[in-house]
Amino acid sequence: MLHKNFTNVDKVVYGRGAYAQLDSILEPKRAENDGFMLFVIDKYFEGKKFSVPSKSGDVVLFVDIDEHEPTTEQIDAIRDEVLQNNGLPAGVIGIGGGSIMDVAKAVSLMFTNEGSSQLYQGLNLIKKKGIYHVGVPTVSGTGAECSTTAVLTGPEKKLGLKCEWTPFNQIVLDPELIKEVPTNQWFYTGMDTYIHCIESESGIYKNTFSTAYANASLDLCRDVFINEGAGQSAENDEKLMVASLMGGLSLTYSEVGACHAMSYGLSVVFGTKHGYANCLAFNHLEEFYGDAVGEFKEMVQQHNIDLPQNLSKNWTEEQITQMAEVSYKLEHMWNHALGLDWKNKIDLEGMKALFRRL
Ligand code: NAD
Ligand code: ZN
User: Fold this and answer.
1) For residue 308, pLDDT beyond 80
2) If you take atom 4 of ligand 1, which residue's CA is the nearest one?
């Protein structure tokens, strides 16, 4: 068996107020290429009291990620516009949730690889190392700050740019930045890391490396979401930020499973956001994830989270089939969840039945 040999993030700074160090972190890199920095920032921060350490000549783009998850078209447009108007940046800094993490990682790669990002959706298709890139997460849970992929939706597929140069050169983890995330969003994205860990632990690819990170992350998640003192607080923001990182590292060395396979179906067919889609599916997967589903339901209740039921009543047979087909193609996830003989255990009809539960 060939073991994974993954690129980790080069440098990590963590702690309350760490964001103030961003300026001095960027300083030694500023002279590279055409000598300016590109900031891609979640539109949420536009007009807010939020200081960006930009200098004269830098480009600051506020990116709207609410209408859809990052697309290949959006990445190509950012790259083309900046190259045409300003040149090649010394680096790109992404400030935002998982969506912006993916935008920054993808844009970094596309500055040095020709043509559309559509051409590179998949494993190791990128030809050249990207430019210096920094991630500053402002929502915690996706693990996109440390993962080896930049997930993009293209005209044909939702698939990441996954290669050894995708991970950030630097991440800045400042728990202060996530304190105002609205409760539902805090929960949906936070559950992404909880589910990463439960899935990473429930399948054939689990191993000592992935288990150690999953256990540490789950302990933190339980403090944040269910143990005494659960809820949004300064202490729990510190915990959730570390839980997200460790959940990402756990799944990097294992795999996600049935819940993520279904979640991708929902995202492709209805554009449902990743964390929310995971929650919709996880709620009904007792036979895969046992007691964890009960624990999840308790957490939903405890925090009064919106999680609608009976959605499938309004879905057409065609939509259900389409979602099941998207899921069925995610072979690596089903391999992990059910074993290499998974096709003997579940077929397309079985997957359609899973979607009908939602
Ligand atoms: P998000 O980035 O989509 O943001 C969710 C919402 O929170 C947006 O409305 C945003 O404007 C807002 N927001 C951001 N920061 C805020 C703050 N500090 N305070 C208040 N609101 C804030 O959410 P997410 O769940 O972090 O990311 C989901 C995305 O991550 C999806 O596109 C998914 O495909 C991707 N993802 C990537 C990976 C990976 O490994 N690359 C893994 C999981 C998910
Ligand atoms: Zn996820």
Assistant:
1) yes
2) 97
- Closest ligand 1 atom to 44 CA: 11
Question: Left (φ > 0), alpha (ψ -120 to 50) or beta: where does 333 sit?
Answer: alpha
Indicate the pTM of the whole model.
Answer: 0.96
Is 6 domain-assigned? Answer: no
DSSP state of 71: B
Which CATH number is 61's domain given?
A: 3.40.50.1970
174 CB under 6 A from ligand 1?
no
Does residue 1 register a pLDDT over 70? no
Which residues face 95 on adjacent strands? 41, 136
Residue 249: domain span: 183-356
Q: Is the CB of 143 under 6 A from ligand 1?
A: yes
197 C-alpha to center of ligand 2: Å?
A: 10
Which of 68, 164, 77, 163 shows the shortest CA–CA distance to 116?
Answer: 77
Give the residue from 276, 254, 296 showing the smallest Cα distance to 139.
Answer: 276
Residue 2: pLDDT band by 50, 70, 90 thresholds? confident
Residues 282 and 169 in one domain: no
Give the ligand 1 atom nearest the CA of 102: 41
Residue 352 · residue 274 · CB < 8 Å: no
Model confidence at 158, in pLDDT bands (50, 70, 90)? confident
Same domain assignment for residues 162 and 215: no
Q: Is the CB of 44 under 6 A from ligand 1?
A: yes
The per-residue DSSP string of 193-234 comes to: HHHHHHHHHSSTT--HHHHHHHHHHHHHHHHHHTSTT-SS-H
For residue 36, give the nearest of 92, 107, 90 by alpha carbon: 90
Place 67 in a pLDDT band, splitting at 50, 70 and 90. confident
CA distances from 94 to 61, 241, 250 (A): 10, 16, 23
The SS3 call for residue 168 is: coil
Atom of ligand 1 nearest to the CA of 248: 40
Nearest 10 degrees: Cα torsion 350, 337, 314, 305: 150
